[in-house]
Amino acid sequence: MAGVPTWMFWAVSFLWDFLVHAICCSIIMLPLFVINPKGAFLSSAQVGGPVYLLLLVYGWASIPLSYFYSFIKNKPSSAYSLLTTVNTLVGVIPALVMTILYFMITLNVPLNKTSLDNALWFFRIIPNFALTWGFANLNLIGLDPWVCSRITNPEAICDGPAEMLGIAACCSSCPPGSPKKFCYVPRDPLAWDVDAAGPDVCFMLFVGAGLFGLLLLMDSWMAILCESLWSKLRTMCSPKKTNVSADCALDGTMTEDAEVMQERDYVEQLVLNGQTSSHALVAFNITRNFGPLLAVDRLSFHIEQHECFGLLGVNGAGKTTTFRMLAGDLSPSSGNAFIGSTDLRHKLKKFQSAIGYCPQFDAQLNKLTGREMLEMFALLRGVPSHMVARVVNRMIDTCDLKEHANKTTEEYSGGTKRKLSIGMALIGCPPVVFLDEPTAGVDPAARRRIWCGLQEMQSSTGAAFVLTSHSMEECEALCQRLSIMVNGMFRCLGSTQHLKAKFGQGFTVLVKLCPAEADAISTAIASLSARMEEEFPGAWELKDSHQCLLHFHLNNTHLKWSHLFERMEALKLELGFEDYVVSDTTLEQIFLAFARTQREPENVAVA
């Protein structure tokens, strides 16, 4: 996402892991020099070298294999458990079974040795099996000198069960002129033979190279294309599930909001006319299916430079799925997105290099400090080396990280990790920044400082922000436009004030009574309630009362502000309450009204 080529990322990761593996192999070899009374493995350099080579090539094959498990499991502990289980089942256990079967042949049990040999070649494709079998063979080869030196009557054994006893190396023909009939001839540990380690080394070299190539293929545009085709195939083969979330008004009528339709038509014209480069971000008919479930349904919107666009929705509405698609972390089932003239589907790496992404869950290296994380991302984003320190210090101030910048991230609280994630997304000034609940868990004072920093950076760099948040206050403070998502679709779109004016549901009236005894307060509440019914018949509701503070809701959307204030002033003079506050419908009330049409959580597969 920072513009590092796929091959370089995996190659550097592999080189580092292989270096660590080589050091571990050297440490493993040390005890063999100390505790090795019979000379097994290290009877000579001829065997000791192949042992070390076998350990090295095992890392060559197993490291890329372990990378594949990162695609299967999200948690390292789960991936490690799965890797250990699979290695045991397909590596160690088959090696034990094959050893037993070969031993049974030496006992004249009627088994087909040719079939066993063929099966052995197949199992050697598995790195763990190849390592186990190769070690067993090298152990026997290393013990040959010790075993042969203890044979006192070679003629009696070599003329009979030598091969059955596994000591054929002790019964080779002696060179001419030798007084002995049978001599020990060292075996080549790396010979291309069933009883040597040569095939194991070669197979692991081949498997490692193949797995690494397959890994690069999985993380390329071809993998995204295959995933998209697979998703379409699953959708075609699954029973169609109707998305009941068609955009509708708050009264439940099945009508799409005019602004949503207008935005879709505008984006369609931009794409058809090739004018996407005039906008910071253009998303066109972004759709994602999970089997029969339509998680995100034909989202279309555009974002200008210097603009913050907000996505609101309850859990399961499709916000995070939309973010993951636009960040290139999840391929869309259909649709496309553009940053300038770069499109998501065909130029993924270039598209990703133009975005900053603050995910919902923090992704940081525990052993690095916050400053080191920011320095690393600054260098990855192409910040010149001589400017890194200044850029990082500015970002530390923006994200309120001064007190914790030099601590390792494993010491950070949840709120501090969110601050660092914001900084990692913003550093390097990417033209488009995705912020998925950026200030969740951050204290109110720090949250406001971060808001100010975001607004300052937006105005100075021209970056476009895409924001999701459960904080209505945050959306009102940062977003020029926002949309409310329900069941993967836009239900409304526009500025905060436009949404309040269009979908407003009346007024909120807070009344503060004069302090008095409990009985007097009860009487005052009853009197005020009676007068509210007279002034606003059938259009008021007492939502809450707490001691002297009363919360009324007026659902008369046609009432003028001037008339409302006139009536409240008259009531204040008549009943003598201390004060009152009148406000229009809040963004939260509008959001909750739309959210009531969201599908039940158990029917939603992806947030």
From TrEMBL:
Keyword Magnesium found: no
Membrane topology annotation: Multi-pass membrane protein
Protein keywords: ATP-binding, Membrane, Nucleotide-binding, Signal, Transmembrane, Transmembrane helix
GO cellular component: membrane
GO molecular function, a single term: ATP binding
Cellular location(s): Membrane
Gene3D superfamilies tied to this protein: P-loop containing nucleotide triphosphate hydrolases (3.40.50.300)
InterPro entries: AAA+_ATPase, ABC2_TM, ABC_transporter-like_ATP-bd, ABCA, P-loop_NTPase, R2_ABCA1-4-like
UniProt cross-references to CDD domains, sorted A to Z: ABC_subfamily_A (cd03263)
Signal peptide coordinates: 1-22
Domain ABC transporter: residue ranges: 281-512
Pfam families the record matches: ABC2_membrane_3, ABC_tran, R1_ABCA1
PROSITE patterns: ABC_TRANSPORTER_2
Domain of life per record: Eukaryota
PANTHER family for this protein: ABC TRANSPORTER DOMAIN-CONTAINING PROTEIN-RELATED, ATP-BINDING CASSETTE TRANSPORTER SUBFAMILY A ABCA
Protein name as it appears in the record: Microtubule-associated protein
